[in-house]
Design brief:
Elements (H helix, E strand, L loop, with lengths): L4 H20 L3 H18 L7 E4 L10 H9 L3 E6 L8 E4 L6 E3 L5 E3 L9 E5 L2 E3 L4 E2 L5 H8 L5 E5 L5 E2 L13 E3 L4 E5 L2 E6 L6 H4 L12
Parallel strand pairs: 1-2, 1-6, 6-9, 7-10, 9-11
Antiparallel strand pairs: 2-3, 4-5, 7-8, 11-12, 12-13
């Protein structure tokens, strides 16, 4: 199926609204159960994140709440940062955040660090309204993360997080869309291979050493 630019924007807008409505209609207890499951998958599958500078997003509209996992990583030595909108149609900046850092309100009423040091993240956990088996992410339509990843001198490892129900046949990617390196849902972990996403399963307790190979995961990525 081929879309004009106007048709693609309208299609993505409709899909985004449908998926957000589906997500926000989920019972809070269900989202919390999936949040704990995703936390466990991230912790077991990406042990190297505890040594890195990690960017994440403040959750809105029923998204996976990564703040719990970020707290776990900070306790192990990670530095965490939040995105900051610098200007329309420009790459994002990232500033260090942990409890106690002053927050201001930005686009979509999302908090961002007001005056903390800017950092260059090694990895980023990104929310996805929708996603497809090629690893492409349906965001909020601003294109900020695509521009940020494209402009990075050293591109951070991109881990998209969403729910299985948000999987689409395709988001109809365009030349400017950048796929995720990994996708994590309540089902388990996917890795982007040349042919698309490969499902690696749901890591169980005690599997960390088996799943932390440099080919698959971040266990050996250093600062």
């Amino acid at each position: 199926m081929s879309f004009s630019d106007t048709e693609l924007k309208a299609w993505r807008k409709a899909q985004r609204e449908k998926l957000i409505a589906m997500r926000t209609a989920l019972p809070a207890a269900q989202r919390e159960e999936w949040r704990r499951r995703i936390d466990a998958y991230l912790e077991r599958s990406f042990p190297g994140l505890a040594r890195l500078r990690l960017a994440f997003c403040w959750p809105i509209k029923g998204e996976y709440d990564v703040r719990h996992f970020a707290r776990t990583l900070r306790a192990r030595g990670a530095l965490t940062a939040l995105p900051v909108v610098v200007a329309p149609r420009q790459p994002l900046a990232f500033r260090e955040w942990h409890p106690g850092v002053k927050l201001a309100r930005g686009a979509l009423d999302i908090p961002y660090p007001a005056d903390s040091p800017e950092v260059l993240p090694d990895a980023a956990i990104l929310p996805m309204n929708g996603w497809d088996m090629a690893g492409y992410r349906l965001g909020y339509g601003g294109g900020f993360f695509d521009r940020t990843l494209a402009a990075a001198a050293k591109r951070p490892v991109a881990i998209g997080v969403s729910y299985e129900a948000a999987r689409l046949d395709t988001i109809h990617p365009q030349p400017w869309d950048i796929p995720m390196d990994y996708v994590v849902t309540e089902r388990g972990v996917y890795r982007r291979d040349p042919g698309g996403l490969a499902f690696l399963g749901a890591p169980q307790g005690g599997e960390g050493s088996a799943l932390a190979s440099p080919v698959c995961y971040l266990g050996e990525i250093e600062r």
